[in-house]
Amino acid sequence: MELWKKIMKRFEWIVFDLDGTIIDSTNELYKIYKLFLKEFGFNGSKTEFNRLNGPKLEEIISILKSKYNIKEKKVDLLNNYNKKIQFGYKNKILPKKNSKKLLEFLARNQYKIGLVTSSSRKNTNLVLKKNKLLKYFSMIVCGDDVLRAKPYPDIYKLFLKKITSDKEKVLVIEDSKNGYESAKNAGLECLMVKNLGSLKKKLSKINDHPYQIISSKNINLKIVPFSEKISVSQKKKIEKIWTSEQKNRKKKLFNSKVLSLKSICSTSKKISISANFVDYKYIITDRHEPSIGLKLKQIGTSGLILIDDKKDEYTLFAKRSKNNTEYPNYFELVPSGNLDDFSKINSGNLDYKSKLLDELEEEMNIKKNQVKKIFEICVIKDKNNSVYDICCIIKLGTNKNRIMRNLRNTVEYTEPKFVKIKDTPRFIVRNYDKIVPTSLGLLEHYLKRN
User: Fold this and answer.
1) Residue 274's domain is classified under what CATH number?
2) What is the pLDDT of residues 7-16, one digit of tens each?
C-alpha cells in the first residue's frame, strides 16, 4: 500500500505563481506601473506591462530606467516603486475568486502546494498573511532567492532542489508567458490558467486513470454462441474500413476469431463472464468507427511475472513493437495476448491460463516448466479501447539470469527488461504516458494488495 501511495496521483505537487494566479493583482500592478511612469512624464502600455510580468522588480526598474532615460538613481526608483506595491498588497490586492477554495481542495486531497513567484519574499509574505493563505504552502521560492528571474528557469530549478519529488510529479500553474516559459525551461509540466474554478476539473481529468479494476480471485469465463445480428449495411462498412486499414499497414492484420464480451457480473467472491467468438475485423473496425454500432468489447489476458532473486522481487516489462495495432512502442507487462478460438475450452469454460502460458513461451521464450505458480487476481478494463483483460500472477521458479540469457526480441516485443517491484513506482512515474493502461491497473492492484 505504501508503494502505491507514491503513484496513485500523477502529480504530488501543484505549484502556483502568485500575481495574477493566486492573487488578483494584475489590474492594481498595472495602475502602479502607469502611475510610476506618469511621475516622470511617460505613458506606459499594456503590451509593455505584460512583457514585464515575470522579471524581478530590480530588473523591471532597470528596463524602465534605461528605456525612458530616467535620471534618478536606481535605488531611489526601486524604493519608490516598491512602496507603491507594498501599499497595494496591504490595502487593495485580494485573492482571486475561488483561490482559497481551490487551496483547501488541494490540501484535503493531500496535494503538496508550492509557490514560485518573482515577487520579493517581504511582499509575498505580506499579501499571503493578510489574506490568511500562507498556511497552505509547503514550499515558497521568491524572486530574491535567484539572480535571474522568469523566463529563465533558475527559480523553478531552485524549487526542485528544495523538494524531494521527481520533476515528473510537479505541475505548475501560471498565468503569464514568462512564467510558462520559465517552468517549461526547467523541464516541468505547466498549465496556463486564468480561471482557477476550472482547475479542479482539469486535475480530475489528469488524474483519472485510463483503466478500471474489477477485483476477484475467482473468475469464470463461459463461452456462448454469437447471437448478434449484423446488417448488410454494417457489413459493407466493416469491409470498407478493414480494407482501408490493410492498405495502410506494412504488416497485414490477420482476421482470426477473438473473444468478445457478452456480459460480466462481479461480486466480492466471483467474476462471471459470458463471451463469444467474433471476427477480429469486427472488433478493429468497430473500434475505429463506433458509428457502425456493434459496441463490441474484446477480452484478452495479461500476466504479471514475479521472480525472486537475491532477496529482491522482480517483474518483467517489454516494449510493444511499432507494428502493433494498439499502443505501439508502449511498455507492457508480459505476457499478454488475445483470447482466440485456438484457446482450450473445457465444458464451455475457456482455459485462459494455458493461453497466457503459451503467450509467455512464444513472446519471451520462458518455458512452462519454469513457472512455479499461476493464479488470477482481477479483470482490468482498458477504458481507451473497451478491452477487458483477465489478469494473472505468474511466479517463476528459476534464476533471473537464466531467464535473461534466453530473452529475445520478437515480432510483438522489443527491449525486455526486469524491474524490481520496489522500483516500479519510479518506473511508472517516468514512463506513465508510455505504459499500456492494463499494465498500470494490474500493477496498482498488486501493489495495493502487497
Assistant:
1) 3.90.79.10
2) 556 788 999 9
